[in-house]
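Researcher: Let's continue the batch. This sequence belongs to ABC transporter ATP-binding protein, and it's 307 residues. Same format as the previous ones, please.
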Amino acid sequence: MAAPESERDAVVADPGRVPSVIASHVSITYRVFSPGRAAEDNTEDAETGALKRLLRRSTQGVGVREVAAVKDVSFVAYPGESIAVLGRNGSGKSTLLRTIAGLVPPTSGRLWLHGRAALLGVNGVLIARLSGRRNIWIGCLAMGMSPDEIRAKQDDIVEFADIGEFIDMPMNSYSSGMAARLRFAISTAIVPDILVVDEALSTGDTQFRARATARIKEIRQQAGTVFMVSHTPATIESMCDRALWIDEGRLLADGQPKPVAGLYTRKYGEDRHVWRERYAEVHRVIDEQGLEAARDLLRRWEPEGGW
Ligand SMILES: Nc1ncnc2c1ncn2[C@@H]1O[C@H](COP(=O)(O)OP(=O)(O)OP(=O)(O)O)[C@@H](O)[C@H]1O
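Model: Same format as before. Here are the structure tokens for ABC transporter ATP-binding protein:
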């Protein structure tokens, strides 16, 4: 069903402020290539079987499945905002965040960024057999820092990671908490305009979490925009001033963290049976009347949502 006109015009920016991110009808679809069936060729020798499979694929095509991870998401974000992204496993949170960080292009729709975005977590580029100190250079270079910038920052990074003599040991000797601390310290060494945090705070001990929270606050105060995935209502309420609830790839709610997290946790929390019926109703409304009508329903249930 085509989206109603009100949904097509969902991106409305505040004329008094310069947005840091504008997402306009962003959809992201993965194409998954499934290998051909191998079992039929077990009477052949391996080489003949492989050749036959290859021939069959080239004539019949490889199975392609499309996964619509993010569906028609629109929002406007501003400097100074700290935005929680919540939703169940597989709902599309990481995909959306990776798109904001510039790692996955939107399949359709438009995304405008004002400034530099960085995904917190330089895990992909770090090399486990090298020391933490060497990895600081690798991670910082990957974030686009110059050698002079790195030299100026490296003592701060070591100090913030606070992993003692392990900084000179290979990263594959680190506990997961230590590795998370070092990654966090590297990726917040420079203040990006848009910081994207994908569950980085779920690791690390209480003391480190408190320091990480303070660092994120610092970034916010320097007028950056922070997006962070979190499943914990207390974290969302203490660290964020806005929440996006992504459900099956759709932006179901965009409002103040407390009511949005409240709706979300009720769906998966205590009065689950009551909410399950309401949730089924939300999905019925989405199918029959569109997403905006479903959001109206949520607004009626949680009028204090600020949406
Ligand atoms: N690289 C990929 N190739 C194909 N499908 C993918 C890929 N990454 C994610 N998906 C699919 O896209 C959908 C959204 O996944 P995504 O990781 O964005 O969800 P998520 O909300 O971050 O989940 P989680 O909370 O488990 O991390 C899922 O159906 C997932 O299987």
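Researcher: Any comment?
Model: The radius of gyration is 23 Å.
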